[in-house]
Amino acid sequence: MCGIVGLFLKDAALEPQLGDMLTDMLITMTDRGPDSAGIAIYGDETTGNAKLTVQSNAPVVDLDKLDNDLRKRVKGKVSMDIKDTHAVLSLQADQVPAAREILSEIRPNLRVMSHGSTLEIYKEVGLPKDVANRFDIRQMSGTHGIGHTRMATESAVTTMGAHPFNTGIDQCLVHNGSLSNLNSLRRKLRRLGVHIETENDTEVGAAYLTWKMQTGSTLGEALTSSLDDLDGFFTFVVGTKDGFGVVRDPIACKPAVMAETDQYVAFGSEYRALVNLPGIDTAKVWEPEPATVYFWSHNAAPTAQEKAA
Amino acid sequence: MQTFDLEAQGLRALNSTLHAQADNSNQTHWEIVNPKGSHAIAVGLDAPIEVNIKGSTGYYCAGMNKQATVHVHGSVGPGTAENMMSGMVVVEGDASQYAGATGHGGTLVIKGNASSRCGISMKGIDIIVHGNIGHMSAFMAQSGNMVVCGDAGEALGDSLYEARLFVRGSVKSLGADCIEKEMRPEHITILEELLERGGCDAKASEFKRYGSARKLYNFNIDNAY
To answer: For chain A, which has fewer Cβ within 10 Å, the N-terminal or C-terminal residue?
Structure first.
């Protein structure tokens, strides 16, 4: 199983409630997967800055004075917002590659959950309600977000095995299903120099999409080629800085329901996740077609790149 | 009429109340409010009662139904009317995957579209869909009738036995051993009755009939790799 929820707001008036709405949706999906939970939120942006969301199993040690230590080394502005085991580091966007190298040196146990200008990813082992409480997700505002609750099938129940996965700057992926060609694909990607950390199948899917986009594909093209290159069952929901997308494998046995109104586009593994959204009774509700890439964007005039989806 | 608030009273109370209705119950009309996509609503009924569900449901609504009429005023999740034995299930909206799967009897009417695997392994149920059906529908269908007023997806009727499939629109592809068959007068008669029962605004003459070529009934060494 596994449960997925996604919410893309068209009406800016709902933005302060994004975290609250997404949390309720995710909690409703708890019985689809109680092992771990995670949420990706696309929030505020400061021009020229980037956010690195990092996690540690020993936050008291690893996060202590982390901003000071990093500031000294990158020689730039660094601010830090600690939330439980996670911390959001804000720094100059062009200093991120250097900062990541420095982090692996000064805090080798720290894991990077996400990198983006607006994206923050929070995920931990535990029930959705507990994970959401630890990170105060209900208080978060944003333009769109994705949540996942996991029932582990093929790899360990760990923080790093939880979803969403960060697939590139401001990009993330959640997955319901199981990939069956994960080992051969992981070997292939590792030979090509792609870093894959865990034994998790979704991480392979995320690494595949990252690699496709690094080698010239748009997100839409990468998702379309995943239909040929990934074997197994999947419903993917992906987030980008401006929007979110949905794709299901051709067999489409993993459930998916979508709803759209003038105020939002919402995704749920089941209709139950959507029932308390405003105006749901008059919303357009449908099941996304198999092997079809769907995409919504905040850009009034979508670029060709996004349109490719 | 009895009204039951599912959100307030809970699923177990609902189903045990409905199960307690005997053949001669005088509480024959039930209305369920606030279904909110819940699973397993009105499963395992076995009395000639009518249940109206005011909203959309989750998995397995009206599964294993006998005698009862279940009318969903919304859309339904996966596995609706699965393994129905008799009675009638009407869905005003769309149905998710494997609606009417393994059904032995009764009638399932879907007024919107049905998704993939509709009527998979059906064994005597009649399924009438006003809209389209998804891929792999009527896979291994053994008997009964499926009527589709719209289009059918890929691999319709793969490996089917003796179920009759009537499709008005296009068929994306036929599954293994499924072929178009001649529509004879007796089939027109059967279809007219089904269209009437399903409340469809369609003429029997507009449909094509599909069924088994019966080539997979016996083991054929040439089919082995």
So the answer is: N
Residues of A with Cβ-Cβ distance to B172 under 8 angstroms: none
The answer to whether position B155 is within a domain reads yes
Contacts by B194-197 with C-beta closer than 8 Å and gap 24+? B194/B126, B194/B128, B194/B145, B194/B147, B194/B166, B195/B128, B195/B147, B197/B107, B197/B109, B197/B126, B197/B128
If one counts the domains in chain A, the total is 2
| CATH number for position B29 | 2.160.20.60
For the stretch B112-121, pLDDT in tens is 999 999 999 9
- The answer to whether B97 contacts A290, with C-beta atoms less than 8 Å apart, is no
What CATH number is attached to the domain comprising A63?
3.30.70.260
What's the pLDDT tens digit per position in A196-234?
888 899 999 999 998 998 899 988 899 999 999 999 999
In a domain, B203, yes or no: yes
Q: Are residues A53 and A146 in the same domain?
A: no
A2 is catalytic: yes
- List the domain range (segments joined by +) for residue A86: 47-117
* Chain B interface, best mutation among A32, A233, A251, A272, by max B CB count within 10 A: A272
CA distance A167 to A253: 24
